[in-house]
Amino acid sequence: MFCPEVENSALVVIDMQNDFCLPGRALCVNGAMGCLPKVEEAVKYARQKNIPLFWVCREHCPTGCDIEVTREHLFLNGGKGTCVIGTEGAALVPPLTREQGDHYIAKKRWSGFFNTHLDSVLKRMGVTKLVLAGGGK
User: Fold this and answer.
1) pTM higher than 0.85, yes or no?
2) Where would I find the H helices in 1-137?
3) In terms of C-beta density within 10 A (0-12 exposed, 13-18 middle, 19 or more buried), how is residue 71 classed?
4) DSSP 8-state symbol, 53
5) N or C, which terminus of the chain has less Cβ within 10 Å?
6) pLDDT tens digits for 13-33?
């Protein structure tokens, strides 16, 4: 059972998007779907306890102009790319959903802290403990 300390805590859910979780996708993380029930449990608990919930998700322009060089090939030569803003691939994997009051952090690189406002928002909210959840082993 998921039971972190509530005071000064936040739940950060990372990359639980279709392009990272669904089998056969270019960025599918081995074991991501196996983590889904525990991520769902953590999200439910955070909402019940009014723990701030942050969705940290990849988002890229359709042209791939903002992608790192290691994934550039996914956008070249007519490639449709991955985690393109507004596409099904960038959406949260069902049944996960964003709700009113949730925080959303769009990232362009591996870290949710690199060139995002995640750190400043957490500090402003007085968060001193993070619980991280996401796909992978």
Assistant:
1) yes
2) 18-21, 32-48, 118-125
3) middle
4) E
5) N
6) 999 999 999 999 988 998 899
